Amino acid sequence: MWKDLAFSLRTLRRSPIFTAMAVLSLALGIGANTAIFSLLDQMVLRSLPVRDPERLVVLHTEFSRHGSSTSDNFESVFSYPEYRALRDRDAAFSGLLARSTAGVTLAWQGSAEPVTAEVVSGNYFQVLGIGAAMGRVLEPEDDGAPGAHPVVVLGHSYWSSRFGRKPSILNQTVTVNGHPMVVIGVADQKFSGLISGNTPDFFVPLAMQKVVKPTWDVLETWDFRWLSMLGRLKPGFSLPRAQAATGIAYRSVNESEMAQLGWQNQRDRGEFLSHKLEVRPASQGINALRRNWEKPLVALMAMVGLVLLIACANVAGLMLARAAGRQREIAIRLAMGAGRGALIRQLLAEGLLLFLAGGLLGLVLAVWSMSALIHVLPRDYAGNWVTALLDLRILGFNLAASVSSGLLFALIPALQASRADIAGVLKDQAASVAGGGARFRQVLVIAEVALSLLLMVGAGLFASSLANLMKVDLGFHTERLLIFKINATLSRPQLQPAVAFYRDLEQRLAGLAGVSAVTAADCGPFSNSGRGGNLTIEGYTPKADEYVGGSQVATGPGYFHALGIPVRAGRELSERDFLASEKVVVVNETFARRYFASSSPLGRRLMIGGSNHPVLDREIVGVVADIHANAHEPQKETIYFPYAQWPGKPDRLTFYARLTGDDTAVSADIRRLLRSMDASVPVGEIRPIQVRIDESIYADRLIAMLSIAFGALATLLAAIGLYGVVSYAVARRTAEIGIRMALGALPGAMLRMVLWDAGRMAAAGIAIGLLGAWALSRYIESQLFGVKPADPAIFTGAAAVLALVATAAALVPGWRASRIDPVRALKYE
Asked: For residue 630, with 0-12 CB atoms within 10 Å meaning exposed, 13-18 middle and 19 or more buried, which class applies?
């Protein structure tokens, strides 16, 4: 075997152009596959780096329960009393943990910054099986009496970036929202949290909830749901058995909740007791990245797989052509007694060397492309979860792709070449020994054209979807608009002091040079936050089991004017609504259509929340146009109310500043203003809202760009393959063409003959490709925005482009055929 490899290496070195073309083609195909697989593995496939991740489950329910809820993910949330009761009663789990996140201010050595805290039950690290990189992790004893254990565990990434990986931070005191807390450890480096793409900066016990969320007092509140729950199954418990045990325990917990809340309505009691709690596998934690990226990445993986197939087919065609040129050498070796098996092994070794070299170069291209992608990847998408580092899984995939494609696509040329007709070859009957290989190369080209068409259609669909997203009318003016978040409630948990600070800040910001308008909202557009809940609406009778509610946005005065949102009827919220005791709301058009049909909503009243004895305490004073809080999302029923009239505790606000001056200068002025007003209230990123908008369609932009690149690459490879087959066929038929021309055939006829042969291969490939493209479009339908899956314009355009490329690829060989000298041609063989 080593002799075969050494001989193959010398042989390939003597054909540098062939070797370079083959290795480069394979490197592009294998490198693209490795890069996309790396993304797919990290975002979709990889399990949490915890002990026995396959034993982890997450608790989920589809039931819409009474009360309030807030969540940082798409899974169900539960109250702390629910968690505590289920933890103590459910026999299916060896441990049940609870967690949530909170935005806090952390100060150390005189410097304060906004960070993310993971609020966790004391058994969090024990249930997951995670240790500490330094110090210790939280323990159940740290989650005892409320406020009794002011301790934190730093995330490894935050420890590295904020504290320079210094061990001296251990047992030091940091200030969280103005409260001193002791650093007791640093989490394991491999662990980045339970929600993919969301890396917490530190972990704090649930018992310290009042420190991280000063406006909340919810540790004993049954109808405020804010905690995700994950459990570890006991040994011997299958998922169905755990589901049964959890169902019994959950019904008992619901009975306790109804007793605590004093439910009397028998219908509500029956519905509440009968709803189910699901136990779902959670080896990947709460995988938000998978939810957003799985289908696009699977589609891209299929695309790059097709690119690799085309590259392999091209290399197989090159090897067949090269083997045809070596038929005399092979025939002589067979005539001298060489075994067919030995020849196949030696030719196969050449192929494997090519594919392995392509795989190695592909690794370099994969790392380079991954680094480029991560450099521009928004932090909101991946945080510290995605890296360009090569691990054993990626290396294994690359090796498997190289070896398997090498064995498959090098074996057939080796078998073809070893079937040489010794007598025919030694008599120089070249045409007789290459026919089988030529037919196989034609089949490869037809396959290349079909796969290229499939990729071009995919690229057209994704590009059209992106174009539609970029043309969406968001409903407000995005030009020259800065966005940033402020949370004054961490030091001002009561409503009036927080509102006073926010109003003062709005007025001062409006006075800055280069600022023409300022407004604020708790859940404004592109703030990555949302609030919703039940509503009771005057004059509206809900259907059976109908959810009556909508999104709720607390705003500053002049909000609609500052953002450029048209007022359709009535008026917008103004300064007088912040001073008056009369509660008012403004609704959007979608809300008015659903709940008031053709009648006017002005003057009608509603109540936030549901009740058997509602107090309709808010009057509708205006109707405004719909806006998109995100380009992907349709308009939702929305009510707007002054943030001075928050129901309950205040919250953080997102500020919007309309500019007439320079972004950078205004941002610096905003930071100086905040420091002068209250240095303990940090401001995070200040960015143009257009950046947020671009980030919200980043995945669509990336997939469209990659699919266009893969489609173009596949088309180029297919064109090269078609050119090679047609050129080879013209060379084989030189004598025939010479005879035809000697008998009177015109050069134009020879050109048409060559183009006709190429056209038949292209037509067959296009027909097959259209069927495959139709199936692909159905699979990616849910990822498209405003595009029909089988869009005739895209399908027709892709077929036309590929037909033109095929014609162009055949023109040069056809032109050569039309210029053949009959005299020389008759001497060709």
From this structure: middle
First and final C-alpha spacing in the chain = 37
pLDDT tens-place string over residues 588-618: 999 999 999 889 999 999 998 776 667 898 9
Percent share of the chain, pLDDT over 70: 87
Q: Are 802 and 452 in contact (CB under 8 A)?
A: yes
- The answer to whether the CB of 769 falls within 8 A of the CB of 729 is no
Q: Give the residue carrying structure tokens 């195909």.
A: 29
On the question of pLDDT at 391 being above 60, the answer is yes
Residue 182 pairs in a beta bridge with: 151, 173
Report d(CA 39, CA 401) in Å as an integer: 16
Please enumerate in sequence order all residues whose Cβ is within 8 A of that of 117, keeping only pairs 6 or more positions apart, or say none. Answer: 101, 102, 103, 104, 152, 176, 200, 201, 202, 203, 204, 212
Name the CA radius of gyration of the chain, rounded. 34
Closest CA to 319 of 412, 408, 400, 401: 412
- In angstroms, the CA 341 to CA 769 distance is 37
How sure is the predictor about 333, in pLDDT bands with cuts at 50, 70 and 90? Answer: low
Helix, strand, coil percentages, rounded to 5, for the chain: 55, 15, 30
Burial 53-73 (b: 16+ CB within 10 A, else e): bebbbbbbeeeebebbbbebb
Among 531, 567, 549, 544, smallest CA distance to 606 is for 549
- DSSP assigned state of 543: P
DSSP symbol at 339: -
- pLDDT(627) > 50: yes
Q: How far apart are CA 161 and CA 746, in angstroms?
A: 76
Cα→Cα distances 710→305, 318, 674, 717, Å: 10, 21, 48, 10
Q: Which among 523, 364, 532 has a CA at the least distance from the CA of 24?
A: 364
Give the separation between CA 741 and CA 819, rounded to whole angstroms: 10
pLDDT of residue 153: 97
- What amino acid is encoded at 423 in this protein? A
Round to whole Å and give the CA distance between 659 and 518.
Answer: 9
Question: d(Cα 80, Cα 119) in Å, to the nearest integer?
Answer: 12
Q: What residue type is 785 in one-letter code?
A: F
Q: What is the 3-state secondary structure (H, E, C) of 403-422?
A: HHHHHHHHHHHHHHHCCCCH
Q: Could you write out the DSSP letters of every residue in 246-273?
A: HHHHHHHHHHHHHHHHT---HHHHHHHH
How far is 786 from 586, CA to CA, in rounded Å?
30
pLDDT of residue 529: 81
- d(C-alpha 234, C-alpha 242), whole Å: 9
Report CA dihedral (257, 260, 261, 266) to the nearest 10 degrees: 70
CB 151 within 8 A of CB 206: no
* Cα 403 from Cα 815, distance rounded (Å): 39
> Considering the entire predicted model, what is its pTM?
0.76
CA distances from 692 to 686, 687, 688, 697, 715 (A): 11, 8, 7, 9, 34
* Lookup result for tokens 């809820």: 69
Give the integer Cα–Cα distance in Å for 554 and 749. Answer: 77
Sequence-separated (6 or more) residues with CB below 8 Å from residue 363? 31, 34, 390, 395, 398
By three-state DSSP, how is residue 428 classified? coil
Alpha carbon distance 366, 29 (integer Å):
10
Task: Read off φ and ψ for residue 482, nearest 5 degrees.
Answer: -95, 150
